[in-house]
Fold:
Amino acid sequence: MLYIATVHHASPRWIEIQTGHIRKHVGVPHQIWTSLEKIDPSYGVHFDNVVVQKGMHAAKLNGLAMEICNVANDDDLLMFFDGDAFPIADPMPLIEEDLGKAPLMAVRRAENGDEPQPHPCFCVTTVGTWKALPGDWTAGYTWPGIRGRPTSDVGGNLLRRLELSGTPWVQVLRSNRRDLDPLYFGIYGDVIYHHGAGLTGGLSPAHRAKSPELRPLPSTPGVRSAIRLLNGLRWRRWERATERRIARQSQMLYEKMRAGDSSWLAELM
Structure:
């Protein structure tokens, strides 16, 4: 049996798109488990099991995995999806190939400042492996960010548990033929799509790496203040323009998906 864990929060906009793609492309027996905080309970009809949870995204994924592990066998498969991620082709051949190499496979968003950790937009392992690690999606464990400062994100502690236990994992990398964005609207391993266009945390390292060059600050106090002001204005103008572009592309792709227009996928592949 394949158990799928996915979290939806505050908005149901991806539920039918995600579950429709899962049921279209995943042909093996499976169950989809979710939590639907701040979403009308009527949307639970699209899932096999709804677990009532509150808290942060990573903690909810951990909670779903805990509930699944309580009923599943150790050799059952455990798959994680972000709420806006789903298969665009049958994932089972890739899963069988990668799990033949290592006990866990997951997306690594190398394009985002060379992030090293497994990402929960797509991850597959066995129930037994998750229990033995034990798996943990929370942040905490750090690595050098793009400016050399310690950083962490969801999946950080899972990376550390893999390292400490000597457990290898297979990285599923971005495979877009065309990038509408350096991070969002990503295809991984040619079988998984991750929309990922939320701007609640500001622009990502992948976006900031493409920001305009700012003028160096001179030592003269008056001129230094003026250049700092101009740099700030230029940065904010670029930031707002980038966010507007992402929002337009996000809505365009979403509307095509919702209407069943498959041309959105051709734009990326």
